[in-house]
Amino acid sequence: MKSFTRRPDVRLRRYIDRFWGWESEGAEQIALPTLLSGTGADLFFHYRTPFSATIGGEAIRLPASHLVCVRRTPVHLATASSVGFVAVRFRVGGVHRFIAAPAAELLDSTLSAGELWPGAGPQLEAQFGEAESLFLRVGLIERFLLSLWDDLPEDELAAAAARRLYRDYRSGSIDGIAAGYGLSRRQLERRIKAWTGQSPGEIRNFSRLQKTVRDLALNPDLSVLDAALEHGYYDQAHFINAFRQAGCGSPRRFREAGGLVTHFYNHPATPPRII
To answer: Where do the DSSP E strands lie in 65-207?
Structure first.
């Protein structure tokens, strides 16, 4: 399997972490991962067979383009042999800089580009399908996102506060962050929830869970206890309870069953590379 990552245009970097993707080779079978609950969002564009997934016990075929706002319900992706996609990895709350729909409507969403942008989305899907190289595919998506820049409003304070909660999930006090912006806790909670669809507490808790699971995925020899303590859980039981509440049962069984062997986590130090 081939993969790539590329940083976005500098104007997009507050909201988008990277463009990335996978491409299968020959007849290989790729065991695609389970996307756990969290704060993030990825927008996928497929130039080969779209994912098949199980969400909330229902098996579905996802459309050729789709937003996966992984919030409260895990998405179990089926093994596939014809994989080829470009994805946009949004930072916490970043997807809302580009979509007019209320944030709450995107929770646990798998909407297509045509549904997200009824006017321009179908045209983008058609152009992507006709593009003959990765360079052209990424360029199409990037230019499209830049074209939305001046058309949609932003709550810059809420966006910045959400990013801080994601970054400082171990030590950041919601009251302290609110005071730093000259707001009451209640005012900050309302603005962050309106912007992201999640409360500050949910963002902080999911950020801790995401980063713990990412470390376990990227470091197969790391113990669950060490990972849990490193990311601010009181003990292993505290992390196990959070993992179960996220809908994936026991972290030990999930790991032993291969749930972290293939994953969509990109190491922070991974340099951009093009297939």
So the answer is: 65-69, 75-77, 85-90
DSSP class per residue in 106-117: GTT----HHHHS
Q: Residues 6 or more apart from 63 whose CB is under 8 A from it?
A: 50, 110, 112
Structure tokens at 201: 């507490």
Residue-range domain boundaries for the chain:
2-147
The fold of the 2-147 domain, in CATH, is Jelly Rolls (2.60.120)
Distance (Å, rounded) from C-alpha 203 to C-alpha 192? Answer: 10
| CA separation, residue 1 to residues 9, 49, 81, 117 (Å) | 26, 15, 10, 32
For residue 11, the 8-state DSSP code is G
Distance (Å, whole) CA 122 – CA 118: 7
CA distance 131 to 220: 38
Site of tokens 């062997």: 261
**β partners of residue 55:** 58, 75
Q: Residue 192, exposed/middle/buried by CB under 10 A (0-12, 13-18, 19+)?
A: buried
| Count of Cβ atoms closer than 10 Å to residue 257 Cβ | 12
Q: What is the pLDDT of residues 183-214, one digit of tens each?
A: 999 999 999 999 999 999 999 999 999 889 88
- Write down the residue that tokens 């299968």 correspond to: 24
pLDDT single digits (tens) 108-155:
889 999 999 998 999 999 999 999 999 999 999 999 999 998 777 788
Do 38 and 70 meet the contact criterion of CB atoms below 8 Å apart?
Answer: yes
3-state DSSP call for residue 173?
Answer: coil
77 phi/psi in degrees, rounded to 5: -90, 140
Residue 84 gets which letter from DSSP?
B
Q: Which amino acid is at 73?
A: T
Predicted TM-score (pTM) of the model is: 0.91
